[in-house]
Fold this sequence. Notes:
By secondary structure, the protein is an alpha/beta fold. It is built from 11 helices and 12 strands.
Amino acid sequence: MTARKTILVTGGCGFIGSHFIRHWLARHRRDRVVNLDTLTYAGLRANIADAAGNRRYAFVKADIADARAVGRALASYRPTHLVNFAAETHVDRSVHGGAADFVRTNVQGVQTLLEAVRTSGMHAVFVSTDEVYGSLPLRGGRPFRENTPLDPRSPYAASKAAGDVLVRAYHETYGIRACVTRCSNNYGPNQYPEKLIPFMTLRALAGKPLPLYGDGRNVRDWIHVTDHVRAVERVLLRGKAGAVYNIGADCERSNIRIAHDILHTLGKPRSLVTFVADRPGHDRRYAMDAAHIGKSLGWKCREKYGIMLPRTVRWYADNPGWVRKALARVRTVNPHIPL
């Protein structure tokens, strides 16, 4: 029988972290999950409220950059594995609001967790982003591979790249058992309204214009959150220490295509699309080559954009209570976002 594991999930009240916890508790019925989250505006306990009554689930309110708090969690629960989802992730806020919070969480927080991994011997996965690779031209340009040089172009991306490099350094120096995953753009239920798909959905529902940066033709590879958490699960259980794994869906869509698809789902006119001045340093295109995780760990994408995007859009329409809570939290931190 497989030994019982205790998984420390940092940032488990956020969008992807909450989906991961729910997935793990359902799939690994002997394991325990400890959710460590400082509950910033992007961390909402309602995201994982359905786990609150589960005896295999525990919540700890703490900041990953607080070494003492992290140490107390390790002493209390003795986790065998760590998955770090905790991060400041909103590019616009890193550009307009300053990078200090991003450096604290995405660099100093990662270093604190790496020390915890080094002293405890935990297996660990640090969840990163395709944005660390920089930008591709709209036409041509090989999709990002794990050996693509890092070329971050925003304060957010730079802070994530710094965390990734720290993970690699700790593996090389101390031999820790840690991997890095870099995923393309996620979508699904519970994503915060500052992100493109919920932002556009909520404005469309209200009959407001959908503002797109520049010409709206910036391209991202879109993956449903359930595919992402299955990939992280596979890396945590079978990943090679020190390795990087790209995660993507081979589903490149322009921002204007996303806006049109949302409007179509809701029966709204395309005339709601408007264009605004482009964001500084706005990367033109991301594309991920996920062949390595497929060949080495047997993971593949399952969910189809044509099915899951309409489901996601309808989820926001059907959950006004969650939307009100999330909007109230986001507006306190991102007042420049026209929600």
